[in-house]
Design a protein that fits this description.
- By secondary structure, the chain is mainly alpha-helical.
- The protein folds into two domains: 47 residues, no CATH class; 115 residues, no CATH class.
- It has five helices and three strands.
- A three-stranded parallel beta sheet has the order 1-2-3, covered by helices on one side.
- Helix 1 packs antiparallel against helix 2 and helix 3 runs parallel beside helix 4.
- The protein is globular and about 55 Å long.
């Protein structure tokens, strides 16, 4: 039963790169652990980490292609993720590493809606090769301001605050 649910989750989540290579061995390892578990050790938890360098402008995409990529995530991910949940009833949590230098307020706002709907979080991704300390600091500060407008980069704690 666990294997069927995991297999369905892995194959239904769109755009998981090379899962056919690493997925089966990961599942085998998890199942071996289940067979070794005994009641005195308590439940066995299986965790998946799904992270994505989310770059809607990847490969020189024009604005129409960029919007299409974001639209697809917003429509398809909730459909697929909502079919699966953890022991607390939460759907899979996805981390989107959004490239700061590709900032588009419409796209980031749309991705933020996925997060506020309970499907994950947005993290800052920054390409900064050959940068200076001052240049990097300026880019990070600007990105923090941009992302904060859409509810991204919020810290844990009471009360939560922007990074």
């Amino acid at each position: 039963m666990v294997f069927t649910g995991l297999r369905a989750m892995i194959y239904s989540i769109p755009m998981m790169r090379n899962v056919y290579i690493w997925g089966p061995s990961l599942i085998r390892q998890g199942l071996r652990s289940l067979y070794k578990a005994t009641p005195e050790h308590g439940p066995v938890h299986i965790l998946f980490c799904v992270a994505d360098h989310f770059e809607p402008k990847w490969n020189g995409a024009d604005p129409q292609r960029e919007k299409e990529r974001v639209r697809r995530w917003n429509e398809e991910y909730p459909k697929n993720a909502s079919r699966h949940w953890d022991g607390n009833g939460r759907p899979p949590q996805h981390t989107w590493f959004y490239a700061a230098e590709q900032y588009n307020p419409v796209c980031l706002e749309a991705m933020s809606r996925l997060c506020t709907s309970g499907f994950g979080e947005i993290e800052l991704h920054l390409h900064h090769g050959y940068d200076t300390a001052d240049g990097l600091k300026e880019k990070l500060e600007r990105a923090k301001e941009d992302f904060a407008q859409h509810g991204a980069l919020i810290t844990q704690g009471e009360p939560p605050r922007h990074a």
